[in-house]
Amino acid sequence: MQPHNTNSTNELWKYDAYLSFRRADTGNNFTDHLRSNLHQRGFRVFRYDDEFPRRREDYLPPWLSKGIEESKILQILFSENYASSAWCLDELVKILESRDSQAGQQIIVPIFYKVRPSDIRHQKGSYAQVFAYHEELYKDTNLEKVSR
């Protein structure tokens, strides 16, 4: 993985990488080390807590969606409790939508932090529990949100 060429006259991406993570699981350890190492190697990394204040909202704010759309590599740090955050799941949906709208020009890199890929793929373990919770929570108002 090579950093963005800042001398390019046709600059497609404002950021080389976007990090999606659950702060309580990885924010002050793994994610900080990953971001630091990417910066040391010349990558421009969008991470919302670097540039914008943290907020609790029921939707992804426009600046966060824009950060996703302006990043070449979209890194998703799946952790044990990633799916328990409605924010993280909304962010994941936006990442997939952005990649599809960019005709596959964006690269998604999943990173599994203390969780098995098969638990996510087959919704086992903590992922089974949290998706059952989300289905119950949204069954009367927005079940389509959970399926996305």
TrEMBL record:
GO terms for molecular function: NAD+ nucleosidase activity, cyclic ADP-ribose generating. It catalyses: NAD(+) + H2O = ADP-D-ribose + nicotinamide + H(+). SUPFAM superfamilies: Toll/Interleukin receptor TIR domain. Keywords: Hydrolase, NAD. This is ADP-ribosyl cyclase/cyclic ADP-ribose hydrolase. It comes from Pyrus ussuriensis x Pyrus communis. SMART domains: TIR. Transmembrane segments: none annotated.
